[in-house]
Fold this protein.
Amino acid sequence: MHNIPITPIRDIAPTPAAAGALARLGLAMRRHQRFIMGVQWTIVLVYLSLLIYPALMPSPAQDAHIYNNLRLFAQFLFWGVWWPFVMLSVMLLGRAWCGVFCPDGTLTELASRHGLGRSIPRWIRWSGWPFVAFVSTTVYGQLVSVYEYPQAALLVLGGSSLGAVAVGLVYGRASRVWCRYLCPANGVFQLLAKVSPLYFEVDQLRWKQARERAPAVNCAPLIGIGHMRSASECHACGRCAGERGAVKLALRSPAREILSNQPRKLRTDEAVTLIFGVIGIASAAFMWSASARYVRMKTLLADWLIARDGYALLQDNAPWWLLTHYPAANDVFTWLDGLCIVVFILGGGGALGLAIWCGVWLASRIARDPALSWQRLSLFLIPIGGVGVFLGLSMLTLGHLRAEGVSLLWVPAVRALLLASGAGFSAYLLLRLTACGRSWRATSAALVGLLPLALVLKVWAGALF
């Protein structure tokens, strides 16, 4: 921990705007990197303790509670508090979770500092990894019931941590190659950070005019700071605050980045991750266990197999690390269960994503605006997508609270408010992107674009109410 390079800030001339409270906070983050490291390693120790010890404990008794059973407490902390509010924090604070708190980021950077330091190969830089990693982790987590059992949590979360360490030991030097390219949550975080009102702003003109300073900033996620226009990849760690008098922590409109007219490379992988991953696959993963369609599909297949003496898929002899298998808790998946889960999540989520993509693509075609490709137009769905992920994860939070006897009469109103806020923000972005009202084409494009938004609302309203 003592070998981590800290860039001095004694010679940094702050911009006039740096007198603001947020700019001073950004400078304080850079000045107190060792304190932040202490926070990071404290989180690593707590994370590993809550990940490993509960997996070694017996199943909780019927009268066990969150406050007196470590297994239940860890389960509630990971899936009832950690993940839903991490997603919410990215929408409000940018990727500060990644840069300041994430245990995987801390571990991979430490490993990279003492690893082989090899250059990053082209296969790791493939832009499709965020989508593939997110979908694979989501589906596998459902198959092993990652939300319910600490052994499955150790397998999924611990496997991610081991992957982060392994990548750090081989590639990069004092960097976070895993976080930049391979983390399963990276694609989601990149999207949600676009609507964060808090971000590190770079004055590109001042950056170019300033003389070079040494030592160079150690940007762990490997960002070209002088060219940074988006909050998507910035980990908000504060290490570059005040650099060349051009970088400061600041506030912006949550709509600013999506509505920006500055030319930027349009990324199909971002749009695919949003439409088919965050909205399609994630929604199906949250809803399959309570879906009547899933029950009907499994029943029809089971009847068809029994009529033909095909009992192989009805066996429940899969290992726990492949399919849920906890006989003591009366929770065992058959091979048919696993097949139906995969088909429902990939098929149902893919169908939902395809319907949304068709609406976005058609709206873009109607607009006939060279600056409004379907990739750019799809970004208006980020707010409702982020709200959907938060609501889906908060189902676990509410399940734990309900088991503890907490009154949940307020939940429908809060859910309705969150859905309305997300849908309203998305509708606003759509109207601004299409320049609704400027021409009949713009208005028609906006009206068509409202259809996929309405579909997302219908799906979540049906699931929650």
Q: What stands out?
A: Residues 1-15 have pLDDT under 50 and may be disordered. DSSP finds 18 helices and four strands in the chain. Strands lie at 198-202, 247-251, 325-326, 331-332. Residues 96 and 236 are 5 Å apart (CA to CA).
